[in-house]
UniProtKB/TrEMBL annotation:
This is Uncharacterized protein. Keywords: Cell cycle, Cell division, Cytoplasm, Mitosis, Nucleus, Repeat, Transport, WD repeat. InterPro entries: WD40/YVTN_repeat-like_dom_sf (IPR015943), WD40_PAC1 (IPR020472), WD40_repeat_CS (IPR019775), WD40_repeat_dom_sf (IPR036322), WD40_rpt (IPR001680). It holds the Pfam family WD40. PANTHER family: MRNA EXPORT FACTOR AND BUB3 (PTHR10971). The lineage of its organism: Eukaryota, Metazoa, Ecdysozoa, Arthropoda, Hexapoda. GO terms for cellular component: cytoplasm; nuclear envelope. The keyword Cell division applies. It is found in: Cytoplasm; Nucleus. It comes from Dendroctonus ponderosae (Mountain pine beetle). WD repeats lie at residues 28-65, 75-116, 116-157, 265-299.
Length: 357
């Protein structure tokens, strides 16, 4: 089903490899520039595939074997840096969006790519919604659009209060975070429409967002990460005031003088089985958390560069994270000699909630 013709088309990197501080599996032939997005294939197909979007304008696809071995399968080039990637629910197509102001659909069986969305500014997020079906795109042109991939015009265009910085979809809920700390929750049943508009509980710029489910496996709220080394856990309909809270993460332990280095939270992801979560940051670490017990389950060693994005596979056995510069310290700290990495970690047991005494 998957095209093998471009196995040899991945560019190779010759820089000296950094020792892997967590001893995780290393994905071969990683992107040549900062890695913006990772996504695993859905449960609908028996194999496990991983796609990565990068600022080198390419989207790469690997097959991940049970042994942890990664096999490069194919690559597609876009007309600009790729900011987000997403899968169709049947695992036959990959969507990719970014700075060329377009979203494209990559049919993996035919290896053909077609444009399926367009905006007036770079597209920051793309999400496939199988219930319609349609592609949702959020852009820096301050719009959220829904696309039937067979039509060049959107099914629906919604004006946002500011540029889209992050978004997530778990039917029947969508949540969008924009510049100036706006949060908009949409209900998707019937026709997408605004359900609630909120001010962020965080004081600084949003960086990432993921929806979480309740015990009935229904979308109930979202985690929101920002540049201030803090994550907010927000229920859309909280039962008590104490349900919503924020916690600090990706910060140094501080100095005797009381100073503390604070790093951006670049991505958050919820474990698909346990409901616990992972955060990754500009400090080059990942952490696993139990939001219900409000405890940290695990913290990683520090990598040589930032961790820019992360993802769990569909059954929660694999945690993927990308080590690449996120430009949080400006261009003067960018070292093109430093290789980008994607690591795979066997994580199922580490993310189990601890039993309560």
């Amino acid at each position: 089903m998957y095209n093998q013709s471009s196995i040899g088309s991945f560019a190779s990197t010759t820089t000296v490899a950094k020792p892997n501080p967590m001893n995780d599996y290393e994905v071969v032939q990683p992107p040549d520039d900062s890695i913006s997005s990772l996504a695993f294939s859905p449960a609908a197909i028996p194999q496990t595939f991983l796609v990565a979007g990068s600022w080198d304008n390419n989207v790469r696809l690997w097959e991940i074997e049970q042994s942890g071995t990664s096999i490069p399968k194919s690559m597609q080039s876009c007309g600009g840096p790729v900011l987000d990637v997403a899968w169709s629910e049947d695992g036959t197509k990959v969507f990719m969006a970014g700075c060329e102001k377009q979203a494209k659909m990559w049919d993996l069986a035919s290896n053909q790519v077609v444009q399926v969305a367009v905006h007036d500014a770079p597209i920051k997020t793309c999400h496939w919604i199988p219930n319609y079906p349609c592609l949702m795109t959020g852009s820096w042109d301050k719009t959220l659009k829904f696309w039937d991939t067979r039509s060049p015009t959107p099914m629906l265009s919604i004006n946002l209060p500011e540029r889209c910085y992050c978004a997530d979809v778990d039917y029947p809920m969508a949540v969008v975070g924009t510049a100036n700390r706006h949060i908009i929750v949409y209900q998707l049943e019937g026709k997408p429409q605004e359900f609630k508009k909120l001010d962020s509980p965080l004081k600084y710029q949003h960086r990432c967002m993921k929806i979480f489910k309740d015990k009935k496996k229904q979308p109930a709220g979202y985690a929101l990460g920002s540049i201030e080394g803090r994550v907010a856990i927000q229920y859309v309909n909280p039962t008590t005031v104490k349900d919503n809270f924020t916690f600090k993460c990706h910060r140094s332990n501080g100095t005797p003088n009381g100073f503390q280095d604070i790093y951006a939270v670049n991505d958050v992801a919820f474990h698909p089985v346990h409901g616990t979560l992972a955060t990754v940051g500009s400090d080059g670490t990942f952490s696993f958390w139990d939001k219900d017990a409000r405890t940290k389950l695990k913290a990683s060693s520090e990598m040589e560069q930032s961790i820019s994005t992360c993802a769990f596979n569909h059954n929660g056995q694999i945690f993927a994270y990308a080590v690449s510069y996120d430009w949080s310290k400006g261009h003067e700290y960018h070292n093109p000699q430093k290789k980008n990495y994607i690591y795979l970690r066997s994580c199922f047991d580490e993310l189990k909630p601890r039993p309560t005494s």
